[in-house]
Each structure stands twice: as C-alpha cells, then as structure tokens.
From TrEMBL:
Coiled coil: none annotated. It comes from Rhizopus stolonifer (Rhizopus nigricans). It is found in: Cytoplasm, Cytosol. The gene is EIF2B1. This is Translation initiation factor eIF2B subunit alpha. One of its GO terms (molecular function) is guanyl-nucleotide exchange factor activity.
Length: 336
C-alpha cells in the first residue's frame, strides 16, 4: 500500500496549533488538507485507508501543550474530534458528489477538486470568528456589566467589536480561569482595547453574580442537544447565573459543532483522568513543593466540563442566533 512516508501529519497538526489565533478544529482541518496534498495513494480505497489512519493518529496524540503561558494544559479532546469529523464528512460528501458528476475524471482530478474545495472551506472558517463576534456584540448593551470565563478568542472578539465598532460602554468581570489562570491574559487583552475590566476569583462567581447583567462564554465544542463543552468552571457559572436569572450566551464558530450527545460530565471525550479516581495514601501525603502540587492538580483535574442546554439562553454563531434546540437541526443540515 502506498503511504505518505515522508509526511508527518501529527507534526503538521502540532505546528498549526502553535498559531495562537488558530482554533483546534481548524488546525486539524489544515493538517489533514496537507496530508491529502502529499498523498501518494494511487486509488480511492488506499487513499481513504491512509486518511483514516492519519485522522486516528491525530486523535490519539496526547492533547497536551507546554508553554510559558499554558504549562501542562490539556487541549480539549472534543475540539480535535470536531475537526476530524468536519474533515472526514467533507471528504465523504465530495467523493460522493464527484463520482456522480458528469465531469468525474481520474483519481488525481478528485484530489485536485478536494484541495480546491478545502481551500474555500478554510477561507470561510477564517471569517467565522468575526461573524460570530459581530452577532454576539448585538447582545452587549450600553452600561452593561458582563461576566466572562477566562480567556476565549471569540469572546475577546465579541467585546472588542462591541466597544470599538459599536461604541458601546460596558464593564467586564473576568474569572481567574484556574488551573492556567488565563483570565489574566483576558484582562490584559481587554485593557489594551480600552475596556474597563477586573479579574475575580473563580470561587467568587456567586458573590459577584448579583452585579452582573449577562454572562458570555466560548465553547470547545457544541454538542447535539445544544449543550456546550468548555473550559472547566463554565458549568458552575451557568448554574449560578440560572439561579439568579441572568442570561448565559455561548458564542461559537459552526466548525465546533460535533455529533456527541453527552448525558453527564463523564460522557464527554477527555484526555483527563477522572477526578473521582483517588491516589494512594502514600502519594497523597508525600512532601512536594508548591510548583509540583500545581502541576499535579492541572494534570489530574478535568480541563473542560459540560454545560447542559437548559442553562444556556442562546447560542451566538456565524450561522446566526440559535436556541439550544436548534443545534440538532443545523447538525442534520451539515451531515446530510
């Protein structure tokens, strides 16, 4: 069987992840597009086998990044799944359409057609965040107090658009965002945009919620029932907001929609060991320094949680404003 012996799809995927403005699903799509470009498979059958193996390699890669800003942080497995599903659905649909086309030619023609369409999808994906931000900004009103969860690129875009394009005045509370404390990064970004903001402890959400008018959260994945998978702590924020009748708006690009239907927290794809697994007494009480304790907490605790649809007011996406129940309709359109 002919394979891409000189092309390392996992290394390509990791390289794309180094672009801080590129989301995980888009990084997966780009890596698999390059895989197709380098493919030496002579037939459709061999091509699909090698492509499925490449997709599996990306999914099995431990989703951990190490950097000065995000030390030992798990990447959300559901975001990888969204990217793989998006690309495999794209290939399957195009192979079917190409086989039925009157212009259907050789296998190389098919690959050329696939790469051309992949480029169009990536162009569309590159504008998805801006479109979602423009729609999301409509829900930020003058003199509002907004609560956001840690750092999210799409939420930063929403608030920047509302402040700098729509000239709205508002204030922002940002949760600290443990374990990697990316809320500090969000505060820095907001202040550079001239937006009044303040970081608050994750444990202070209940305390400040009375002063909040609305909550904005991003999403690593939007699941079939309209719930979201996002940074750990999102679920408890949504619970507190619901108890005090505060709207929760989830902002996400449509390429994060994924065919997963979780029933509870433990149904979501995750690279993180279950928190309910206890360590031995000896390990629990061993003498370690503070830095080791923080690293151990980051790796042994979940990085994302699942927020059920009943706690989300609206989903604000590049496809428009959706109710949680409307997500399943959009997924049907994407997969049929």
């Amino acid at each position: 069987m002919s394979t891409n012996s000189t092309y390392d799809v996992v290394s390509s995927y990791q390289a794309f992840l180094n672009d801080t403005e590129l989301s995980t699903p888009v990084a997966v799509f780009k890596a698999l597009t390059e895989f197709v470009q380098h493919s030496t498979a002579p037939t459709m059958s061999e091509f699909m086998q090698t492509l499925e193996k490449a997709a599996q390699d990306i999914r099995q890669e431990p989703q951990i990044i190490s950097s000065s800003n995000n030390k030992n942080q798990h990447k959300a497995a559901i975001a990888v799944l969204a990217g793989v599903d998006l690309f495999m659905r794209f290939v399957t649909r195009n192979s079917h359409e190409f086989s039925l086309s009157e212009e259907a030619g050789s296998f190389e023609d098919f690959k050329g057609n696939l790469l051309s369409r992949a480029s169009l999808i990536l162009d569309k994906a590159s504008s998805a965040r801006d479109k979602a931000a423009e729609i999301g900004a409509q829900f930020v009103h003058d003199n509002a107090v907004v609560l956001v969860q840690g750092y999210s690129r799409v939420i930063m875009s929403v608030l920047s658009y509302a402040a700098n394009v729509q000239n709205k005045r508002f204030k922002v509370y940002v949760t600290e965002g443990r374990p990697n404390s990316d809320g500090i990064q969000a505060v820095s970004a907001l202040r550079k945009n001239g937006i009044p903001c303040r970081a608050v402890l994750d444990s202070a959400v209940g305390y400040i919620m009375d002063k909040v008018d609305m909550v904005f959260v991003g999403a690593e994945g939007v699941v079939e029932n309209g719930g979201i998978v996002n940074k750990i702590g999102t679920f408890q924020i949504a619970l507190v907001a619901n108890a005090l009748s505060k709207p929760v708006y989830a902002v996400a690009e449509s390429y994060k929609f994924v065919r997963v239907y979780p029933l509870n927290q433990y149904d979501i794809p995750s690279e993180t060991p279950e928190i309910v697994t206890f360590t031995s007494r000896r390990k629990s009480f061993s003498a370690v320094n503070d830095a080791e304790t923080v690293d151990e907490l980051a790796l042994s605790n979940p990085s994302v949680d699942y927020t059920p649809p009943q706690y989300i007011t609206l989903l604000l996406t590049d496809l428009g404003v959706l109710t949680p129940s409307g997500v399943s309709d959009e997924l049907i359109k994407l997969y049929v």
